[in-house]
């Protein structure tokens, strides 16, 4: 099963899904029409048959049943199946209305079918994934590999696979090429080694092999069952994501130096920012009006505070906040916030800072495109100058993304009153560059809401 398990597992999931789709349909049909059959039962039968064909077609187009060992995770399985189920439901509803059956089919029936189908199919996936991973953990269905190179690379690869035993990769050892011997002698020795150990994969460390040696090892693998995997010396960019692209016949390793891996990912973030900001500004309008009234009545001066901040690529923009300080705050000669004891902060301003409500107008900056909902803290010029002297490389990396209303640094550190706190907040925000995902953004937003509710803003 080792070489064909992905195909068999995909076929298993496909036909189990078809059986569950039909079984759920029939079960819900009997429950819904237990006492009397509907007059349009022929429509239900045709819909069931069309649903089967549609499911097989959508699964093929979306690649729902393409399974690779490294990608066979619970999250990937749930995401692929849920996407297929939603597309299937939407397409089926569209077809029903095109043939003018939309009003004849019970919507409650369709909803119960899809909920039952998704619940049972996901249960099967979770159970089978658990069984397969436990099966591999104890050594079955394992891929065995040998590293052609040095012991250090072997240990690094072994560490990767040992941390994920559910992948089922087992190391048979290291084969070191002896430079004092001829290429043919070493190839013959490796040939005998492969015949004895019978590994599934041969990992060739390119930094330890000459092009001629690599070519001879590949030729050797062509007459054995072993598959070749070329391993570049990636130790110089372990902290970066990398992927291989083929430009003609040339494989190029693209090293990701930016938090977004592609244009689609950045576009998705922008769509989320616009949608989330619009919803907050519409639903939060009563809160906006109350805060505006409170700021106006608490002390003389404007309602909003504007200041020039450094944005993406160092572009200067005006940030909007609710005013939390007295109108003559500049007369105190201070730049950084001094915390709760800052004499410039108004009583209502202290509450706004702790609850983060003073940041609400920045959603207008998000709509304008100057900021994102989640991103590094936008800084005034004096903090920019300070960090450019202290940590220029890290700070310039932060400038590769849009600043945000909230961030890891804003949650963990909050307002910075000195160099040490600024650097600490910067280190926290640096984590965002390597951990970006839409799920991470949502998680940070929820943590920010918790800070607002508990009034723990610093």
Which percent range fits the helix content? 55-70%
> What's the N-to-C terminus distance?
57 Å
Percentage of β-strand residues: 5-15%
Number of helices: 16
The whole-number mean of residue pLDDT values reads 85
Overall shape: flat
Largest beta sheet: strand ordering: 2-1-3-4
Number of domains: 3
- Structure summary, number of beta strands: 10
Q: From the alpha-carbon coordinates, what is the Rg to the nearest angstrom?
A: 30 Å
Low-confidence stretches: none
What is the string of SSEs from the N terminus onward?
HHHHEHEHEHEEEHHEEHHEHHEHHH
Strand count, sense and barrel status of the largest sheet are: 4 strands, parallel
Structural class assignment: alpha/beta
Short description:
This protein is an alpha/beta fold and 458 residues long.
Characterization of the model:
There is one protein chain. With 458 residues, this protein is an alpha/beta fold. The strands form four sheets. Strands 2-1-3-4 form a four-stranded parallel β-sheet, with helices on both faces. The chain has a two-stranded antiparallel sheet with strand order 5-6. Helix 1 packs antiparallel against helix 4 and helix 3 packs antiparallel against helix 4. 55% of the residues lie in helices and 12% in strands. The protein is built from 16 helices and ten strands. A hairpin with a 5-residue loop joins strand 7 and strand 8. The protein has three domains: 133 residues, no CATH class; 113 residues, 3-Layer(aba) Sandwich (Rossmann fold), CATH 3.40.50; 192 residues, no CATH class. It is flat, with a radius of gyration of 30 Å.
